[in-house]
Amino acid sequence: MTESPDGATAVRVRCEVCGPRVVTLASVRLVGRSGRWEYMFSCPDCGLRVRRSADEALRDALRDAGAAELSVAGEGGASSACAVPDA
Questions:
Q1: Beta strands of the chain (E only): which ranges?
Q2: Apex 61 CA angle, 58 and 65, nearest 5
Q3: For residue 73, what is the DSSP state?
Q4: CA 9, CA 1: separation in Å to the nearest integer?
Q5: Around Cβ 36, how many Cβ atoms within 10 Å?
Q6: Alpha-carbon gap, residue 66 to 41, rounded angstroms
Q7: 70 bridge partner residues
Q8: By 3-state DSSP, what share of the chain in percent is helix, strand and coil, each rounded to 5?
Q9: pTM of the entire structure?
């Protein structure tokens, strides 16, 4: 983690097209699904939406820095934050 010129927390990431880039932490999403974690972002240069695996250490670092996080239930399930009770 670093600090961008405007003082926001920044993260170094890798775009498959553009290579290493720096994005703000606010543009990174941490997603957990069935015990597997990924982080996602849009490349600031080419706009590609990138999804990469996040091991436990990276997940913890992004959490500690304040990345937005969503944990999704198994296949076809809803996240606990979005679950709708049965009628």
A1: 2-3, 9-15, 19-24, 29-33, 36-42, 49-53, 68-72
A2: 140
A3: -
A4: 7
A5: 9
A6: 15
A7: 31
A8: 15, 45, 45
A9: 0.70
